UniProtKB/TrEMBL annotation:
Pathway(s) of this molecule: Porphyrin-containing compound metabolism; protoporphyrin-IX biosynthesis; 5-aminolevulinate from L-glutamyl-tRNA(Glu): step 2/2
Co-factor requirement: pyridoxal 5'-phosphate
Catalytic activity annotation: (S)-4-amino-5-oxopentanoate = 5-aminolevulinate
EC code(s) of this entry: 5.4.3.8
Protein's name in the database: Glutamate-1-semialdehyde 2,1-aminomutase
Keyword annotations from UniProtKB, A to Z: Cytoplasm, Isomerase, Porphyrin biosynthesis, Pyridoxal phosphate
Major enzyme class: isomerase
Alphabetized InterPro entries for the sequence: 4pyrrol_synth_GluAld_NH2Trfase, Aminotrans_3, Aminotrans_3_PPA_site, PyrdxlP-dep_Trfase, PyrdxlP-dep_Trfase_major, PyrdxlP-dep_Trfase_small
HAMAP family named in the record: HemL_aminotrans_3 (MF_00375)
Statement: the UniProt record of this protein carries the keyword Transport: no
Entry GO MF terms: glutamate-1-semialdehyde 2,1-aminomutase activity
């Protein structure tokens, strides 16, 4: 039998850090990653046959659990007709119709191949449409690895302590203005000074890349007002929150209308897919109907569209998101209760099927608070859970995800594991 350790040894010779995406490497929590051989429902099995209850869900897409038969069969059917055509196909039209019907602010959409591509394209559109160059982002928010976004970034960039990456030209970074999340006064001051130069403001409407931090009451509405007042575009990065915190995403949950929205993860059903969309007058400026160029050899790929469409079908079941939110409450209440009984400073955040666990007594509303929580305690807890067969995201700065495959048995088992892991801290 090949072991996890043998595979990681081989991987490290040939892949930077042994992985193809940084946070997978377990660098911040310590130890070595496991190599997944198979996934089904709420579970992953590694190459050694060990089973884990999975709260990462491929970092978000697996909202109906892994290897759902409806998604798998849609892919199998699509594959029989060919893997990629390079011409338009019907599934792209159905996908566009589905997204537009589910997300009220989106009149038109362009499919791409990742969340990174979606955000890079959206800010190009914002710049092209406004004739301005500056963009605003938030400290601890992650929007993929485009140059403009690797400035005070979250996720792996934050996990590994290089929130602003070498290799990003100063000239590019200078065009990115950053703000503290959930601080409306800071946003007002920044717009008062730079408002006329700002093409767009991009935000995770629920932050999920500095752990999970919901927006304060009225915060998104205030940002909407500021953008309108200064003629900047409001861009919601719903790569993580889209189709997760509500069927219509965070914009439906909070009742805010952005100008542009970025998608990824769930709309691909586990295949490499992203999308950006929004107001018709803006989207019509994208090539070939307009001059703002953006393209992709595999964009709108028929197999990826089939997976995404099957996924979007499943999550339209009545009550799907309410049920997921209730499961998330049950899970996080149980973990919180276990921490309290063990006398461990702990708090949780959650919105819909997204959650964050923090080793602090404070309710975490800011980047400063998130980074001040006890990361060493999280890392020990992570390994305590992993030893007990529960896989949390391997970083204190990532959100957790619940799927419809996480039933009462999995939730009870997770709370049981947490009780034991807290006791062992
Ligand atoms: N935006 C957000 C909010 C994300 O969480 C991510 C990835 N976790 C991205 C963009 C980038 O997506 P991708 O990794 O598919 O490029």
């Amino acid at each position: 039998m090949t072991t996890n350790h043998e595979l990681f040894d081989r991987a490290r010779q040939l892949l930077p850090g042994g992985v193809n995406s940084p946070v997978r490497a377990f660098k911040s929590v310590g130890g070595e990653p496991f190599f997944t051989a198979r996934a089904d429902g709420a579970y992953l099995w590694d190459v050694e046959g060990k089973r884990y209850i999975d709260y990462v869900g491929s970092w978000g897409p697996m909202i109906v659990g892994h290897n759902h038969p409806a998604v798998r069969e849609a892919v199998e059917r699509a594959v029989r007709d060919g893997l990629s055509f390079g011409t338009p196909c019907a599934a792209e039209v159905t996908m566009a119709e589905t997204i537009v019907s589910l997300v009220p602010s989106v009149d038109m959409v362009r499919m791409v191949n990742s969340g990174t591509e979606a955000t890079m394209s959206a800010i190009r559109l914002a710049r092209g449409a406004t004739g301005r160059n500056k963009i605003v982002k938030f400290e601890g928010c992650y929007h993929g690895h485009g140059d403009s976004f690797l400035v005070k970034a979250g996720s792996g960039a934050l996990t590994f302590g290089v929130p602003t990456s070498p290799g990003v030209p100063k000239a590019a970074a200078d065009l990115t203005l950053t703000l503290p999340y959930n601080d409306i006064d800071a946003a007002r001051e920044l717009f008062a000074e730079h408002g006329g130069d700002i093409a767009g403001l991009i935000i995770e409407p629920v932050a999920g890349n500095m752990n999970c931090i919901p927006p304060k009451d009225g915060y998104l509405a205030a940002l909407r007002e500021l953008c309108t007042q200064y003629g900047a575009l409001l861009i919601f990065d719903e790569v993580m929150t889209g189709f997760r915190v509500a069927l219509g995403g965070a914009q439906a949950h909070y009742g805010i209308t952005p100008d542009l929205t970025c998608f990824g993860k769930i709309i691909g059903g586990g295949m490499p897919v992203g999308a950006y969309g929004g107001r018709r007058d803006l989207m019509q400026q994208v090539a070939p109907s307009g001059p703002i160029y953006q393209a992709g050899t595999l964009s709108g790929n028929p197999v990826a569209m089939a997976a995404g469409l099957a996924m979007l079908q499943l999550i339209q079941a009545p009550g799907f998101h309410d049920d997921l939110a209730a499961r998330t409450v049950r899970l996080t209440d149980g973990i919180l209760d276990a921490a309290r009984k063990a006398g461990i400073p702990f708090s949780v955040n959650r919105v819909g099927a997204m959650f964050g666990l923090f080793f602090t007594n404070e309710t975490v509303e800011s980047y400063t608070q998130a980074t001040a929580a006890d990361v060493a305690a999280f890392n020990r807890f992570f390994h305590g859970m992993l030893d007990r067969g529960v896989y949390l995201a391997p970083s204190a700065f990532e959100a957790g995800f619940v799927s419809s495959a996480h039933g009462d048995a999995e939730i009870e088992a997770t709370i049981g594991a947490a009780t034991a892991a807290f006791a062992a801290l």
